[in-house]
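testing teh design pipeline on a random one, pls ignore if ur not involved
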């Protein structure tokens, strides 16, 4: 979501005659998009603010610095007092809000006119991931999560706007597209009359574009249905990647987390998805060390991970976030040592599981998109978003090819290109 917001803002700045550069020393305008989902991300943002204090561009002037996103609303006074060199604070990363404030306070922008050909797809280079935001904000108020407070309630973009942005990506030559939402399968639930649903939105994208690969992120088990599995997940142009966070394998902890699913529901949805999509590549989120998590609760999570066999997982130790339900009602009493021990154990389990599950691809021939080419070789990406390192390719960045998987690394494959005259087939392996 943060990458998509930055790409959208970059496209708008491009349309006003801007040019994206690589470092603050080259810039007249620096925008720092922040995240506070975890304490580490918040600390990283604060550190970066400090590093901008002495930034000077080629003309010897300090750039106009904007701090935006989730860290800002709860830290405005601290940022103003500690980092007075920051010129503008924007509470969210919503592109409309950011641009409105920039137009008022960044003089070079106010004096410019927008290119009539502007579209959100203008900034993303071909070969990179291509995002369309379908939902902003979230109505699932999980007790540990700061997103609903930082990004606000769920707001659904109209289907015709989503389709139009997807088509713009296709027209400029993008090989695939990813439809984004904090809880993407909840699309339409904020419209009141339920007239627009996730299924209808995704089918509209599929019907009005010809991308061989269409992805969606992120899914919650409480929003998932058999119909979604049968009509969307099973669709041959939908990629096999399903990111379905479980967080905990304990029903008691899930209840305290205010997750709207239990383990039985999650297990059933996984079984259904795998039944309609045999090549499913399943990833998840695991959060250990929640304040009410006992050792027995943690062991249930560990056992569930062993049972389901995730292809990959994003794993974290609980980090109290100010303003959340858990921060107000569940004192964080678990020691850091306990959290780190539990986290280390699930990471080691997942590394073994990922390696074992990845070995099934050795010798397989997979469609890939070329992502980067240089003198050292080429990087391609599978339909389930796994990078493949190859000695080289005759194809260009953004083109489809086909590769044979040779070896497996922890988070990537190595392989060789087997065809340069390849036309992409749908995402089903």
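output:
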């Amino acid at each position: 979501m943060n990458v998509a917001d930055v790409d959208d803002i970059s496209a708008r700045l491009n349309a006003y005659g801007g040019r994206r550069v690589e470092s603050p020393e080259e810039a007249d305008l620096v925008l720092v998009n922040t995240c506070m989902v975890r304490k580490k991300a918040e600390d990283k943002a604060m550190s970066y603010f400090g590093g901008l204090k002495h930034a000077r561009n080629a003309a010897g002037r300090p750039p106009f610095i904007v701090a935006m996103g989730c860290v800002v609303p709860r830290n405005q006074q601290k940022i103003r007092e500690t980092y007075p060199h920051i010129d503008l604070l924007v509470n969210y990363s919503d592109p409309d809000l950011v641009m409105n404030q920039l137009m008022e306070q960044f003089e070079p922008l106010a004096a410019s006119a927008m290119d009539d050909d502007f579209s959100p797809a203008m900034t993303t280079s071909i070969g990179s991931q291509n995002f369309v935001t379908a939902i902003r904000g979230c109505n699932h108020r999980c007790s540990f999560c700061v997103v609903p407070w930082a990004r606000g309630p769920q707001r659904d973009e109209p289907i015709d706007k989503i389709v139009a942005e997807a088509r713009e990506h296709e027209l400029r030559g993008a090989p695939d597209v990813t439809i984004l939402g904090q809880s993407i399968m909840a699309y339409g639930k904020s419209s009141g009359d339920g007239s627009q649903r996730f299924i209808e939105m995704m089918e509209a994208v599929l019907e009005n574009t010809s991308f061989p690969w269409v992805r969606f992120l992120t899914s919650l088990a409480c929003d998932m249905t058999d119909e979604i599995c049968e009509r969307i997940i099973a669709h041959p142009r939908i990629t096999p990647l399903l990111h379905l966070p479980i967080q905990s394998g304990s029903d008691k902890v899930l209840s305290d987390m205010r997750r709207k699913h239990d383990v039985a529901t999650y297990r059933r949805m996984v079984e259904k998805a795998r039944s309609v999509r045999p090549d499913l590549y399943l990833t998840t989120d695991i959060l250990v060390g929640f304040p009410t998590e006992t050792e027995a609760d943690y062991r249930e999570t560990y056992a569930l991970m062993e049972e389901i066999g995730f292809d990959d997982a994003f794993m974290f130790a609980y980090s109290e976030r100010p303003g959340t339900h858990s921060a107000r009602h569940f004192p964080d009493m678990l020691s850091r040592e306990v959290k780190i021990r539990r986290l280390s154990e699930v990471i080691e389990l997942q590394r073994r599981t990922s390696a074992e599950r990845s070995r099934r691809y050795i010798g397989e021939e997979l469609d890939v998109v070329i992502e980067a080419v240089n003198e050292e070789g080429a990087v391609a990406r599978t339909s389930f978003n796994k990078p493949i390192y190859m000695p080289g390719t005759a194809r260009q960045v953004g083109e489809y090819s086909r590769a044979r998987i040779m070896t497996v690394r922890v988070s990537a494959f190595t392989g060789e290109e087997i065809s340069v005259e390849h036309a992409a087939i749908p995402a089903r392996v």
